[in-house]
Amino acid sequence: MKEAIIYDSLSGNTEILAKTIKSEKPNILFEKINNKTKENLKNIEIIYLGTPIIKGMCTEKIKELLESLEDKKIFLFVTAGYGISDEYYQNLRKRIVSIIPNSNEIIGSFFCQGKMPDAVKEKYISLIKEHPDDKNLKVSLENFEQAKTHPDENDKKRLLEEIKKINLT
Ligand SMILES: Cc1cc2nc3c(=O)[nH]c(=O)nc-3n(C[C@H](O)[C@H](O)[C@H](O)COP(=O)(O)O)c2cc1C
Question: Which atom of ligand 1 lies nearest, measured to the CA of 57?
Fold first, then answer.
């Protein structure tokens, strides 16, 4: 089956995962999403599709592409700043899957944290100064620190393991 790796990435985290898949599948179409992507996917059957989470959703470009896909097998890989619980990832997954037309099949997915810009930390620190009793802000700051090293080697390994599990019927 013809395969492709398509991704969006604003600061490089999701691109790290895309390149990890490419390292295992060096000869397939590898493309950061652009205005030719839709056309380039015409004869592709399996798409490894990557996106960061921006404001609770995939990027606009990926959204537009996903909504247009028909009869593809899709493996989603996603980086998000927050990684507090599996439930968080499950909700994001549901939200993304809900925009994908039914003729497509989701053959797997992978989520991990991705580091965030320092400006985010500075914002939390100034908010904590204003609201010292706000526990959520402290959790957010902890989460920022936790995200700093991701995606890491273990994330890459887990991603490839998840891809190995794909069972095409
Ligand atoms: C404008 C903006 C909005 C973001 N919104 C969210 C969000 O709603 N939820 C989340 O978990 N992470 C959010 N993040 C963090 C990114 O999902 C995370 O850093 C991701 O790994 C970025 O991937 P990239 O480097 O491939 O763009 C946001 C980041 C930016 C820059």
Answer: 8
